[in-house]
Write a structure and sequence with these properties.
With 198 residues, this protein is of the alpha/beta class. The protein has one domain (4-186): Rossmann fold, CATH 3.40.50. Helix content is 48%, strand content 14%. The chain is built from 8 helices and 5 strands; from the N terminus they run βαβααβαβαααβα. The protein has helices at 16-27, 35-44, 50-69, 86-100, 115-121, 125-130, 137-150, 176-186, and strands spanning 4-9, 30-32, 74-79, 105-112, 166-170. It has a 5-stranded parallel β-sheet, sandwiched between helices. Helix 1 (16-27) crosses helix 8 and helix 3 (50-69) packs parallel to helix 4 (86-100). The chain starts with a strand and ends in a 12-residue tail after the last helix. The relative contact order is 0.24.
Length: 198
């Protein structure tokens, strides 16, 4: 049985982590959402310090290598991608290449949702529980607006993307459980034995 990598992309509060949690439940894959490394890193370094980026990238790369090379069924990774920056695609391709070189099937999912819906999700209990840095809602909403103006956080309809296996879902009106099932079914991801974190 081969490994599986699922990368879930999308803008702030679109539901990447929550969908990832539901996908983990029905596939047995483990979830590494992007704030797992961010929340640790921010406790040690300011975002403006070069050490912030070094530690964050080191944590992520270590996790990728452990799961790509270790005896695990695979990984779900969530990431907010700037679709107008080639460096973002280069980063994602390196992750995909690492897993593929170790026999993994690699799938990329993009989520999109209306901005007003994402503003509501930004206040959700699950998001605030797992993302301490988002609990200052005034700052968080301002950061959402500023980043959305600076970067393109979703692909254009019909845009050619460098992913062999890709699925885009508008989840504005869809519960995360349904989105997770759509991903599992579309890519025919086999269910593995689950993992209970302590």
């Amino acid at each position: 049985m081969s490994k599986t990598l699922v990368i879930i992309l999308g803008p702030h509060a679109v539901g990447k982590m929550t969908v990832g949690q539901e996908l983990a439940k029905i596939t047995g894959l483990r979830l590494f959402h992007n704030h797992m490394s961010i929340e640790l890193t921010r406790k040690l370094f300011a975002h403006s310090e070069k050490e912030w980026g070094l530690l964050n990238s080191t944590i992520r790369q270590t996790v990728f290598e452990l799961f790509a090379k270790g005896d695990f069924p695979g990984l779900i990774f969530t990431y907010m991608c700037a679709f107008d920056m080639q460096s973002e695609f280069d980063f994602l391709q390196k992750v995909i290449d690492l897993f593929q070189s170790n026999g993994a099937n690699c799938y990329v999912v993009e989520l999109c949702a209306d901005f007003d819906e994402r503003l509501l999700r930004n206040k959700s209990e699950n998001r605030l529980l797992h993302k301490e840095s988002k609990r200052n809602l005034e700052w968080s909403e301002a950061e959402m607006r500023a980043t959305s103006e600076k970067y393109r956080l979703n692909s254009h309809e019909g845009e050619a993307l460098p992913f062999e296996h890709f699925l885009k879902i508008d989840n504005t009106a869809l519960p995360p459980e349904e989105v997770a099932q759509m991903i599992k079914s579309h890519f025919a991801i086999e269910e593995r034995e689950g993992f209970a974190s302590s």
